[in-house]
Write a structure and sequence with these properties.
By secondary structure, the chain is an alpha+beta fold. The chain has a domain of 53 residues: Alpha-Beta Plaits (2-Layer Sandwich). 34% of the residues lie in helices and 28% in strands. It contains 3 helices and 3 strands; from the N terminus they run αβαββα. A 3-stranded antiparallel sheet has the order 1-3-2. The longest helix has 12 residues. It is elongated and about 50 Å long.
Length: 82
């Protein structure tokens, strides 16, 4: 189940609580890799503000992002998927 036993006094259960919160909050997120042309910097900004960016590399063709994002965002920007 979704139960965590905690003790603020002894610091028990905090890591488990954080892990569970992350799993619930990001359960619908998928990892994806995008190559976004420099002229579409607004898309890079979008992912930086609405996704978990794992890496951001500047390449000759554009910005390569590895992110965990929602399926809707992945679909919306599928033309940039690598």
């Amino acid at each position: 189940g979704n139960r965590i036993y905690m003790s603020a006094k002894y610091g028990i259960g905090i890591p488990e609580l954080l892990r569970m919160m992350e799993q619930i909050l990001f359960s619908e997120y998928q990892e994806a890799r995008f190559l976004i042309p420099y002229e579409n910097g607004n898309v890079v900004h979008y992912f930086n503000s609405r996704a978990m960016v794992h890496s951001q590399e500047y390449q000759e063709q554009g910005v390569c992002l590895t992110v965990s994002c929602r399926e809707g965002d992945r679909e919306k920007y599928k033309q940039y998927l690598t």
